[in-house]
């Protein structure tokens, strides 16, 4: 999503892709006539090569020819690109439910990780239940106000840990630099632990906490790697290289469990 530096809402320019359906769209030729305009694609790969190295710039160029609502075929994935505030408002106001699901990267299907996730879970009864629990137990104003002291405690602990590690580094002749992201990670998990279990989950000095931190780093790294199987699922039959991400993802996910 990109915004101009100044101006009202109608000057906001939105460019993002929305998953429509995986596989052929029902309705045959009649449904294809209702699709937004878009460039013709190649067999099998569709419009994947139209994205280039700077997709948002290519989308803007295609907008001048096809309009603010663009239809692309990325491998086997039907994709709609919205590039105006008016079209985005209509999409979310009138067609929110059909576009509620999102594409789940193949790597995240290891250990059925996606089925228990609000971010990647399929819209349905289970997802709605998770959303309801989070909204009622974690995100309502009363719960947020009641947990202010818990959050402050976790932040105070993090600051103390950073100061202690920095002092220890200087005492050993170091520069006093610390790995701040590690302390933020521990603090965030301890906030969740105090909200749900009324106790800290991780300790900065425990080996288990360090292994968990390293495993989660790898999980996020592998989940973000490009994988051609996300757009061409049949490639999973032949691929045996390291980019077949389920195997390393599964090993690191097992550690994080």
Condensed summary:
The chain contains nine helices and three strands, in the order βααββααααααα. The protein has helices at 28-33, 55-66, 85-94, 125-137, 141-146, 148-171, 180-197, 207-223, 246-256, and strands at residues 16-22, 69-74, 77-82. InterPro entries: Cyt_P450, Cyt_P450_sf.
Number of strands: 3
Count up the helices: 9
Question: Helical percent range?
Answer: 40-55%
What does the oligomeric state look like here?
Answer: single chain
What is the CA-based Rg, rounded?
23 Å
Distance between the termini: 34 Å
Structural class: mainly alpha
Low-confidence segments, given as residue ranges, are: 1-30, 240-244, 252-256
Mean pLDDT: 76
**What characterizes the major β-sheet?**
3 strands, antiparallel
How many domains, in number, for the residues? Answer: 2
Output the helix-strand order: EHHEEHHHHHHH
Beta content comes to: 5-15%
Shape annotation: extended
Strand order of the largest sheet: 1-3-2
Write the SSE topology.
Blueprint: E1 16-22, H1 28-33, H2 55-66, E2 69-74, E3 77-82, H3 85-94, H4 125-137, H5 141-146, H6 148-171, H7 180-197, H8 207-223, H9 246-256
Structural notes for this entry:
The protein is mostly helical and 257 residues long. The chain folds into two domains: 9-103, no CATH class; 130-256, no CATH class. Helix content is 46%, strand content 7%. A hairpin with a 2-residue loop joins strand 2 (69-74) and strand 3. Helix 6 (148-171) packs antiparallel against helix 7. The protein starts with 15 loop residues before the first strand and ends with a helix. The model is unreliable at 1-30, 240-244 and 252-256 (pLDDT under 50).
């Amino acid at each position: 999503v990109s915004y101009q530096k100044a101006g009202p809402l109608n000057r906001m320019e939105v460019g993002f892709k929305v998953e429509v359906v995986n596989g052929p769209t029902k309705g045959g030729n009649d449904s294809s006539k209702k699709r937004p305009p878009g460039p013709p694609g190649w067999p099998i790969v569709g419009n994947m090569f139209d994205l280039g190295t700077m997709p948002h710039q290519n989308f803007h160029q295609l907008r001048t020819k096809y309009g603010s609502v663009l239809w692309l075929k990325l491998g086997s994935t039907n994709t709609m690109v919205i590039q105006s505030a008016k079209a985005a408002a209509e999409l979310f106001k009138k067609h929110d439910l059909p576009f509620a699901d999102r594409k789940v990267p193949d790597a995240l299907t290891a250990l059925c990780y996606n089925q228990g996730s609000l971010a990647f879970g399929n819209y349905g009864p289970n997802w709605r239940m998770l959303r309801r629990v989070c909204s009622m137990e974690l995100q309502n104003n009363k719960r947020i106000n009641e947990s202010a002291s818990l959050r402050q405690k976790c932040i105070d602990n993090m600051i103390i840990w950073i100061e202690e590690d920095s002092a220890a580094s200087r005492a050993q002749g170091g520069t006093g630099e610390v790995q701040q992201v590690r302390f933020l990670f521990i603090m965030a998990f301890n906030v969740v632990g105090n909200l749900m279990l009324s106790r800290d989950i991780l300790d900065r000095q425990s080996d288990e906490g360090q292994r968990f931190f390293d495993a989660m780093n790898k999980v996020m790294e592998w989940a973000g790697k490009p994988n051609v199987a996300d757009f061409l699922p049949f490639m999973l039959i032949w691929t045996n290289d390291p980019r077949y991400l389920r195997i390393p993802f599964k090993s690191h996910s097992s550690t994080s469990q």
